[in-house]
């Protein structure tokens, strides 16, 4: 069972459950105050606006007691995926390096973007080929990935960058970067490849009725 953690203000939890079920996985919403079920085979930290993004996006949810359970599960090899607000929570909780800050535009960005697969050897990207271009939606006001250059170089040397924002042909350009993220980075893995955070929404690109299924490959990482 994949546990989709709901915090006050989460709004993509049902989307995540529906998308996971579409790829043949059993998923349930777990209220953060109830703790992580012992039988959880995976964890999704979904998108939304946990605690109204007070202080900064993800900061309060990252300090919820359930995140101790999530960290322990991640250390035991349980796959963990943070999406959008869940990515902010994951970074704030120390599951991955870096931080997500206010978009360079200082505006909420809601649009479809192209991503280039940078490493196809992780659970989250093995459904793709390196260099593939996929299309996912974004919906965030604090999606700008910030990390010191030296730490970014370490991520790159360790092949821990999953996706980069690109144009439809796969070119990594400033114009294709919707939020000003360092190095056009859209998703990374932690010290273990079973832990990932990403700003674009794979669960919103996993059903034909939503206009595309490019995101199914990410969710299949739980299998």
From TrEMBL:
GO terms for cellular component: cytoplasm. One of its GO terms (biological process) is 'de novo' IMP biosynthetic process. Its EC number is 6.3.5.3, 3.5.1.2. It catalyses: N(2)-formyl-N(1)-(5-phospho-beta-D-ribosyl)glycinamide + L-glutamine + ATP + H2O = 2-formamido-N(1)-(5-O-phospho-beta-D-ribosyl)acetamidine + L-glutamate + ADP + phosphate + H(+); L-glutamine + H2O = L-glutamate + NH4(+). The keyword Metal-binding does not apply. The active site is at residues 84, 201, 203. Keywords: ATP-binding, Cytoplasm, Glutamine amidotransferase, Hydrolase, Ligase, Nucleotide-binding, Purine biosynthesis, Transferase. One of its GO terms (molecular function) is glutaminase activity. The keyword DNA repair does not apply. It comes from the Archaea. Pathway: Purine metabolism; IMP biosynthesis via de novo pathway; 5-amino-1-(5-phospho-D-ribosyl)imidazole from N(2)-formyl-N(1)-(5-phospho-D-ribosyl)glycinamide: step 1/2. It is found in: Cytoplasm. Part of the FGAM synthase complex composed of 1 PurL, 1 PurQ and 2 PurS subunits. Part of the phosphoribosylformylglycinamidine synthase complex involved in the purines biosynthetic pathway. Catalyzes the ATP-dependent conversion of formylglycinamide ribonucleotide (FGAR) and glutamine to yield formylglycinamidine ribonucleotide (FGAM) and glutamate. The FGAM synthase complex is composed of three subunits. PurQ produces an ammonia molecule by converting glutamine to glutamate. PurL transfers the ammonia molecule to FGAR to form FGAM in an ATP-dependent manner. NCBIfam families: FGAM_synth_I, PRK03619.1. This is Phosphoribosylformylglycinamidine synthase subunit PurQ. It comes from Halarchaeum acidiphilum MH1-52-1.
């Amino acid at each position: 069972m994949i546990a989709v953690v709901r915090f006050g203000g989460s709004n993509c939890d049902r989307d995540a459950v529906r998308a996971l079920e579409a790829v043949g996985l059993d998923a349930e919403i777990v209220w953060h105050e109830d703790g992580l079920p012992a039988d959880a085979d995976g964890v999704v930290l979904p998108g939304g606006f946990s605690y109204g993004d007070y202080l900064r996006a993800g900061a309060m949810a990252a300090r919820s007691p359930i995140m101790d359970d999530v960290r322990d599960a991640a250390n035991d090899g349980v796959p963990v995926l943070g999406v959008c607000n869940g990515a902010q929570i994951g970074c704030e909780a120390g599951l991955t390096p870096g931080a997500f800050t206010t978009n360079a535009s200082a505006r909420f960005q809601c649009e479809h973007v192209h991503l280039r697969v940078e490493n196809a050897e992780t659970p989250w990207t093995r459904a793709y080929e390196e260099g593939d271009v996929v299309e996912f939606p974004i919906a965030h006001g604090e999606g700008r990935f910030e990390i010191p250059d030296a730490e970014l170089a370490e991520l790159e040397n360790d092949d821990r960058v999953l996706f980069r924002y690109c144009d439809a042909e796969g070119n990594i350009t400033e114009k294709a970067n919707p939020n000003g993220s360092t190095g056009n980075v859209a998703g990374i893995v932690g010290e273990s490849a079973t832990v990932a955070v990403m700003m674009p929404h794979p669960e919103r690109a996993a059903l034909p009725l939503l206009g595309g299924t490019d995101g199914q490959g990410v969710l299949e990482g739980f299998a």
